[in-house]
Write a structure and sequence with these properties.
The chain is of the alpha/beta class and 201 residues long. Among the domains are: 1-40, no CATH class; 79-172, Dna Topoisomerase Vi A Subunit, Chain: A, domain 2. It contains 8 helices and 6 strands.
Length: 201
Amino acid sequence: MSKSIGGPEIERLILLLARLPGLGPRSARKAALALVKRREDLLEPLASAMREAADKIVTCETCGNVDTTNPCTLCQDPRRDPSLIVVVEEVGDLWALERAGVLRAQYHVLGGHLSPLDGIGPEQLNIPKLVERAHASNVTEIILALNATVEGQSTLHYVKEMLAGSDVTISEIQKGVPVGGELDYLDEGTLSTAIKSRRPI
């Protein structure tokens, strides 16, 4: 059992920080110390921002994005193509695609991937709403932009089956050699996929 290094408030702060992705106990202690040392310009504004976020952030009932409005800002954007829906696993994936600025499409966040070992089945994912959206008259294509993991691909095949009754084109993003990637640094699975998904040029 680790020895307490501060009062219960500091210990609680460290424990909560340690639960964040990418932060273990040691990183959490460093982050907590930085916050405590910079109380006025970092800790207090952060606490205020987190309280405001907790009060105002909601999940969009249309696509599953997080925002302060429902429907979210992206769903309300008239410049987006209503005929195209990009399906992603998590909100972070949506943000990544938005940063890339490749498409001006609508989105749909599943809220994870199928993982029977973790108790995540189809009923835990936002699939029924996607099927409902796929039957809208203005939707012509759904792009499945799911991760190239075993779970992601299992989810992709399941979602594709669920969308089989809709009159839309279903496509998936290509996986393989990333832009700027060197073959020597790629794993065998990525190289294999890159070869199998080759196209004429």
